[in-house]
Amino acid sequence: MSKYREHTTEQIYKSRINFKAIQDEKYNDIIRKQAEKIQEMAAIMDKAALIDEDRTFSEQEVVSMLQVENKGLRELLQISRKNGNLKTEDKTVQTESSDCTTT
Q: What secondary structure does DSSP assign to 71-87, as a single string?
């Protein structure tokens, strides 16, 4: 009878579901999926940061170019004023015309 009990006990232990292993596997799967999502979000954030840096650099480049152009134009204006080549324009409205009649 003792062999029967040993055999039965052994079969019961073999047929039992290992809930801890199943639960650990489930949690490991959840952790793996979350880690993949985190990596994906980090990659997206890196890409967004690169795009933002490129845009900022481009904007700074345009501002620098405009500043250089503005400086050059101011120098030309100053030279024109110094040499007397700059004529002051009449500030009156130049859109008035005698041939424009309304019916």
A: HHHHHHHHHHHHHT-PP
